[in-house]
Amino acid sequence: MTQQVLAWLDERLDLSALRAFVAEKTVPKHRHSVWYYMGGITLFLVGVQVATGILLLLYYRPSASEAYESVQFIVSQVQFGWLIRNLHAWSANLLILMAFVHLFSTFFLRAYRKPRELTWVTGVLLLFIMLAFGFSGYLLPWNELAFFATKVGTGSAGAVPVVGDFIVRFLRGGDDVTGATLTRFYGIHVAILPAITTVLLGAHLLFIQRQGMSVPLSVEKREKAGEKIPQEPFFPNYVLHDVMWWYVALAVLAALSLFLPWELGTKADAFASVPAGIRPEWYFLAMFQTLKLIPSHVMGLEGEMLGVLGFSVAAGLLLVMPFLDRHAADGRPSKLITAAGILAVIYLVVFTIYGYLAA
Amino acid sequence: MATWLRNLTFVVAVVLALAAPAAAQPAQTSGCETCHKEHPQPALSTPARDFLATDVHRERGFTCVDCHGGNPNETDQVRAKAPATGFKGKPSPQGVTAVCARCHSDAAFMRKYAPKQRVDQEAEYATSVHGQQLAKGDTKVATCISCHGAHGVRLVSDAKSPVYPVNVAATCTTCHADTERMKGYKLPDGSPLPTDQRVKYEKSVHYTAMTQRSDLSAPTCNDCHGNHGAAPPGVGAVTNVCGTCHGVFATKFALSTHRQIFDRGCVECHSNHEIIEPTDAMLGTDKSSMCITCHSDGDNGFKAAAGMRAEIDKLKAAIDRSHALVSSAENAGMAMDEQSLALREAANHLTLARTEMHAFEPKAVTTVLEAGLGITAKVDAEGQAALEEVSFRKTGLAVSLGAILLVVVALWLKIRSLRATD
Prior knowledge:
The structure holds two protein chains of two kinds. Chain A is an all-alpha fold. In chain A, 70% of the residues lie in helices and 3% in strands. The model of chain A has no long low-confidence stretch (mean pLDDT 92). Chains A and B meet through helix 4 and helix 11 of A and helix 23 of B.
């Protein structure tokens, strides 16, 4: 049957090029290969997000008066609505975790070196977009914790010099977090960010297919020395391996969704006092904790402004890393870059845990 | 504009500016205060100092002469208090009310200072036990200054005022807890006037509400006895007094057979000053119940009390059971907000039944309780269904994880076989 369908399509579309690509494409096989599946898992989780997000759209109502109730309806009345919402919430968190793992594995393997600079840039931009997805999606259930966390989060943008106030007003759709912010975040979450993601992800995947997979510097050195690096067919070996990891991710997601359902909390009330222990999602916790620790004034400058500027500079450096690290392109790993990467990981882990304990 | 007209306008403006706020400006230190505040006798210096420190009358521009007469501009003590100056000195207890009422009973005058304030205090006072005793020549009784103070008078809304709600009990019991002072006073039934009212009141729900929950609407002495017309509520008036706040209970009680029997109305079961938190134990036939004070085994009241208590206990137990079920479903991750809300409604029925009980009509109580039991039954069914759903989900997850594991193992084997072939 499959053969018949393929023959039918081949007759009309000439699939010989595709068949040749599938038959000939290989991927290098080495002891670091496991890190190469992280991108695949991230991609799978993006797929889960798209599928569950579309299903949630069928019932979700983006207004301050109905958002909370509609999510309540989804988890209590809609058939398997609880599963879809929990999958969406857990998958979002795992997606960002895997995106970070993918980023740091790519970083330490120096996969961003020439000629894959653009793959790195699109990947980092995708990470920022995923964080924006998380930030905008967090508010959508319109619960108390998300409401106040968004108030704090959007308020931090006010520390940006000159344009800070404009950014705050732009994000909130007014001076304060209101129903206007909710509809704005909804539009960003379901239309603007997905559109940008489609373009960036398309480019990211296209670059990978076009340039093939990078190999670590140590493997490249052996290759240059004349050693033949073993390869394995992309299809079916690598694809099956990828699918196997997807199934593992699906099992983890399903178990988390059932045993640790995502709490809805109480409905947001702008007139309520700020609840105790207010904090953002875990992936912003390190930044949140850092901003809390910075003194209100440092050398005559506002502490919060300094913190926000610091994060902006760090994000900028991360984005242009392939152009800064010239040693990697020459096949020599820079100890400074490795140390900076290790410090960044330690900082993120320690401050995230600290943020949890402090809250 | 002509120069003379400009000058006249200026003069008029200055005069008006000086005259207009005069009524609201604190009075300047008068000649009376100059001497009295330094007087070696505390009885003569303290009033002046109190008046100078904080006094609502002084803040409104009144001076010593407004109550005491005299001439504050005269530096000689004798001439300042000469009969021609209208000097009254310290008013006698009987004279105090007249001095205060001169302004406070004058509606036109009071409108300028406190338009919302009542002006019938003197008339009310005359009807009070205090006023009646005073008229008989008993000068030990309270007059205006006993509660409000004479000098250093504060607004009732001032938290430091002796008549601010939380201070009223202390103010009244300055005299009423004084056994020596109260000796000789009797209640209408001839028994001695008790002096333990404050001790009892401080054990009451009303005192707790006022002092611990800062509920200033909670009753203190004057809310039941009246303030200016203070007198104990008479027999037959108690229900009305309690019903001022507890309107629904009073209405229900008015329909009951007990209305005719209970001489002291609500007080028969709830006491007066020591009104402790009412519990379901007050109803029924247990040792702690109020009903067995009059009813005994076999009579209709005894049966009705036992029946109403049993049904209230039944709904209470049902609500507790439903709560436990809803909690376990919530702990398992199920959304049970609607059921929690329904249980609040069931609890409302319990409250309604406790209210309805004051009519002492078992049928009416049963109707309310049955509606509550209907709610708990529905919640129980939904809670049970939620727990079954949890079980279904767990089974579904186990099956799914099993299937995923099989696929993962199959893929792993396939990958190994492909690698072996390579």
